[in-house]
Amino acid sequence: MEIIIEHLDKTYRNGNHALQDINLNIPNGMFGLLGPNGAGKSTLMRILVTLMKPSSGRVTVDGYDLRKNRKEIRKMLGYLPQDFRFFSKLKTYEFLDYAARLAGMKEVAKRRQAVEKMLEEVGLFEARDRMANKLSGGMKRRLGIAQALINDPRLIIVDEPTTGLDPEERIRFRNLLSTISTKNVIIILSTHIVGDISSTCEHMALLDRGAVAFNGSPDELVEEARGRVWLIKATENEYREISEKYPVISTIPEVDGWEIQVVADSINGYSGINIDPNLEHAYVYFMEAKLGEWTESDDFK
Ligand code: ADP
Ligand code: MG
Description:
This protein has helices at 41-48, 70-75, 92-102, 108-121, 137-149, 167-180, 218-224, 236-245, 279-290; strands at 3-11, 17-26, 29-34, 56-61, 64-65, 77-80, 155-159, 186-191, 203-208, 211-216, 229-234, 248-254, 257-263, 272-274. By secondary structure, it is an alpha/beta fold.
């Protein structure tokens, strides 16, 4: 299984150029799509799930052309949209049964079995008789992923699935996805939260203003920031200066000033040491230092 995206472009009718010359190869496993709001993540996902046409470019999924073979691609697809809601007045198990029917599971007995198994897997079996639209936020999200997984899809696309979840639910959700991340399955997960891109994602892309700013493994992204994360001991005055020049990642008060972490190619004139970068450092480096989006902070004015 492989997704090949070549020169993909999308301009909305109002002129918004949401995707610009996207080139990506997505292999089996979990693929993280990281980017701030407005980067184009949902646009890319809506194109991949055949709900929206690209303006130009080519996408193949397991050899099937997105423009010509929509039916074949839809058959292998499970999708959790960013704005997933339950409009209908269905109980939890009824909703999942309905989703299974939509996914083409015709046999009642088989469907019931699949629904019960899935309810167990996402931890909603106890809640099966509750109204779907009355479930808690975390439970709704789990029902959302259940409907995406009900027909054993080989291509799973989940758009910002962790938004609004508490840390415990987040971890649970990630574990659920990584258990189904088996050999011949692609899972694409989009997020604007760096912490969602964990070691469970073998591959990832960083999307910024419609373009791919980085494509590789999370470890490779981290390495991009090596030598560029600085720990500086600063006085009050220095701290003000530094925070206007460089992105500050963290600030720890000390007896005689501050200990601050900044991301920058160099910190001319200040004495600091390089520390090991992590994914958050690398993200800030890409979004602010490297791509020139760092604007002077308004603090202390
Ligand atoms: P993300 O999911 O990363 O937040 P989106 O794909 O939703 O980003 O949006 C990318 C860009 O396209 C944004 O500038 C957004 O305002 C614009 N956009 C999204 N949907 C539409 C639409 N239906 N019509 C016009 N512009 C849109
Ligand atoms: Mg989105």
